[in-house]
Amino acid sequence: KLQGLRNKIVTDGTFPDFPKPGILFRDVFAITRDPESHRTLNEIFDYYSKKAIERGIQAVVAIDARGFLFGPVLALKIGVPFVPVRKRGKLPGNVRSVAYSLEYGEAVMEIQEGSIQQGFKVLVVDDLLATGGSLRAACELITKSGGVVHECLVVLELLDLKGRNLISAPVTSLLQF
Ligand code: PRP
Ligand code: HPA
């Protein structure tokens, strides 16, 4: 199953020199554009969610914007709150901020104050792990909010960039490149 999804990324979701020369862009929408691949991914999420329930996951956080394709689905399957981490200026109310760098740029990430219950075991979700800057920033926001980052899940991992080395919690990736 995973091999089929990986092939989908290779055939329909690989773009050299986007958004800048030298970047080999892997496009997770290659999976969502194809209903059969999308359904396969959903089945993998069913399995992951059952295990996440057994591990006692109490909240799901996902990262703006492509993390939102998958985080809410997992939160529904697990039956816990979905909490967004967003880029600067998009979340209303009082927010906590952290600056981070990514593969091709810099940005600030925010979480709403009070959005994570103290001591909750959190699953952090994103579409793709590259340098790890985004995921690390999200983990930092959760920890500073009083949550416990129990584990992270990404659909795609770019192994060359060694992003998982920045993350202290265990990281599961479904597809590696
Ligand atoms: C991409 C991707 C991850 C992040 C990975 O998001 O969706 O969130 O970069 O890179 P990193 O591991 O080097 O931090 P991007 O910031 O391009 O935003 P988008 O989801 O809004 O397109
Ligand atoms: N694909 C999608 N998003 C990304 C990538 C990529 O190759 N690198 C950093 N963010």
User: How many helices does DSSP assign?
Assistant: 5
Return the average pLDDT rounded to an integer. 97
Strand order of the largest sheet: 5-6-4-3-7-8-9
Large-scale geometry:
globular
Order of helices and strands: HEEHHEHEEEEHEE
Which ions and ligands are bound to the chains? 1-O-pyrophosphono-5-O-phosphono-alpha-D-ribofuranose, hypoxanthine
Q: Helical residue percent?
A: 25-40%
The span between the termini is 16 Å
Rg of Cα set: 16 Å
Q: What structural class results from the helix and strand content? A: alpha/beta
- Provide the number of structural domains: 1
pLDDT < 50 runs, ≥5 residues:
none
Describe the biggest sheet?
7 strands, mixed
Give the strand content.
25-35%
- State the CATH topology: Rossmann fold
The CATH architecture designation is: 3-Layer(aba) Sandwich
Q: Look at the structure and give the CATH class.
A: Alpha Beta
Count all strands and give the number.
9
